[in-house]
Amino acid sequence: LLNCKYGRGWMEHHKLAVNCFRYFGSGQRMFERISEECLFFLDAIDQHQGKAFNPKHLVTNAVSNITNLIIFGQRFTYDDSDFQHMIEIFSENVELAASGWAFLYNAFPWMEYVPFGKHQKLFRNANEVYDFLLQIIKRFSQDRVPQSPQHYIDAYLDEMEQSATDKATSFSQDNLIFSVGELIIAGTETTTNCLRWSMLYMALYPRIQEKVQMEIDCVLNGRPPALEDKQRMPYVDAVLHEVLRLCNVVPLGIFRATSQDAVVRGYTIPRGTMVITNLYSVHFDEKYWSDPSIFCPERFLDCNGKFVRHEAFLPFSI
């Protein structure tokens, strides 16, 4: 899904993932399940009884459970040690994949045979994740009813059965495991980091935090939030957009490739060339943003306090 070359395999998996996230991960029912997860999250915070603690694991678990509902059809408790361990490995692998060792390995693949280095840790983690996901997929597919999918795994297994006689199909058990792993990482890391940055900025800018709280209190007036409340909170929306702009959770976006030969500013880019977008430079370009290094949610509001979009806002990819 994320690192596959453009072709039949990518198109098949992309279509399935988009359809599943649209069907299982949107609408009022999904919003209600997100609200339920927020209550579990708040209860877990209350257990610390006002004492300082690192919220990373709680935030990661809460965010991951939203993706888990789409992939597996249910959430994992915060004290599930096996899943907690997997989440830690996923986070570690993301850090390792962005390290110097990973770039060296990509440049010199023969390093696979070097018995030391962080790339070996990455391989060990990948094997452990594979075994864990294999077992968990088997567990969640036991009560499956063919052609009546309740989550992503059900839908994927349906595709595997339908294409069983197609030798060119890309649907397989291995690709199911890889896809589930990528969806968990993609659905967890970016949102988790965004929320953690949001917490930090609210702590650093208490006046902005106060304005956020005032708008939420004014709109909700003591009742639980509803899906349609989002459009009634322009300042909250602006704050979240400014967090995404400033923290750059995906600074280089998702790597792309040219589908045909292209000419850019006189340079010939052959078909199949990897294209990396520097989203960091876009979000700090003074051509589009005044004082780009300053945290200023008002840049996403017009003179009437209404939320406005910016063409140079590209938090995840083009």
List keywords for this structure.
4 strands; Cytochrome p450; 318 residues; 11 helices; mainly alpha
Q: What proportion of the residues is helical, as a percent range? A: 55-70%
Gap from first CA to last CA: 16 Å
Number of domains: 2
What is the H/E string?
Answer: HHHHHHHHHHEEEEH
Instruction: Quote the average pLDDT.
Output: 89
InterPro entries: Cyt_P450, Cyt_P450_E_grp-I, Cyt_P450_sf, Cytochrome_P450_fam2
GO molecular function: metal ion binding; monooxygenase activity
Family: Belongs to the cytochrome P450 family.
Keywords: Endoplasmic reticulum, Heme, Iron, Membrane, Metal-binding, Microsome, Monooxygenase, Oxidoreductase
Explain what this protein looks like in three dimensions.
The structure is a single chain. The chain has 11 helices and 4 strands, in the order H-H-H-H-H-H-H-H-H-H-E-E-E-E-H. The strands form 2 sheets. Strands 1-4 form a two-stranded antiparallel ribbon. It has a two-stranded antiparallel sheet with strand order 2-3. It is 56% helix and 3% strand. A hairpin with a 2-residue loop joins strand 2 and strand 3. The model has no long low-confidence stretch (mean pLDDT 89). The protein has 2 domains: 1-204, Cytochrome P450 (Cytochrome p450); 206-318, no CATH class. It is found in: Endoplasmic reticulum membrane; Microsome membrane. Keywords: Endoplasmic reticulum, Heme, Iron, Membrane, Metal-binding, Microsome, Monooxygenase, Oxidoreductase.
Record the SSE blueprint:
Layout: H1 8-24, H2 27-46, H3 56-71, H4 81-97, H5 100-107, H6 118-140, H7 152-162, H8 173-204, H9 206-220, H10 234-247, E1 256-257, E2 262-264, E3 267-269, E4 274-275, H11 279-283
Antiparallel strand pairs: 1-4, 2-3
